[in-house]
Amino acid sequence: MMRKIVFVILLSALFTGCASVVPMESKEGSVKAKHFAPPQAGNSGLYIYRDSFIGKAIKRDIWVNGKCVGKSAPDVFFYTEVAGGKEHSIATESSFSQNAMMLFVEAGKNYFVRQYIILGPSVGIAGLESIPEEQGKAAVAKLDLAIPGTCSQ
């Protein structure tokens, strides 16, 4: 019986140790970002989030126009503003190289990009996809805001 308890404790510690932790914004900051307020004049709001179950232990860098947004983890989102009326590069670190997408944004609107992880031959592969506004809002509402600006590369 004691062996089973020790085994369960060790197994729990192992899985907890694999959980990705990134610096998180305050609860108030997260709630404020989830109001989905219009961005500043001339800008577009950009929500980049990760809600996938696969790859829970994997953290991946995210960049917008070559600038670090942050290191993603499961159940987190980032919010940033970009110039409206332009196309922007959104990239994520992946197993062997960056995966990127281009997104044209109109001023005054919010946009949602989902980062997902799929299982590769030996490691998780990160990808990005543009998500419709209502679907993006529903997903972000369940997540927590991460502090931007920490990338490994």
Instruction: Give helix and strand order, one letter per element, not per position.
Output: HHEEEEEEEEHE
Low-confidence stretches: 5-19
Q: How many beta strands in the DSSP annotation?
A: 9
Largest sheet: 5 strands, mixed
Assign the structural class, choosing from mainly alpha, mainly beta, alpha/beta, alpha+beta, or little secondary structure.
Answer: alpha+beta
Termini separation: 47 Å
The residue fraction in helices comes out at 10-25%
* Tally of alpha and pi helices: 3
* Mean of residue pLDDT values: 86
The main sheet orders its strands as 8-7-1-4-9
Overall outline = globular
Strand content: 35-45%
* Rg measurement, Å: 17 Å
Question: What key attributes describe this structure?
Answer:
153 residues; alpha+beta; five-stranded mixed beta sheet; four-stranded antiparallel beta sheet; 3 helices; 9 strands; globular
Describe the overall structure.
The protein is an alpha+beta fold. It is 21% helix and 41% strand. The chain has three helices and nine strands. It has helices at residues 2-18, 27-33, 133-140, and strands at 43-50, 60-64, 67-72, 76-83, 86-93, 98-105, 110-119, 124-131, 144-145. Strands 8-7-1-4-9 form a five-stranded mixed sheet, with helices on one face. Strands 3-2-5-6 form a four-stranded antiparallel sheet, with no helix packed on it. It is globular, with a radius of gyration of 17 Å. 28% of the residues are buried.
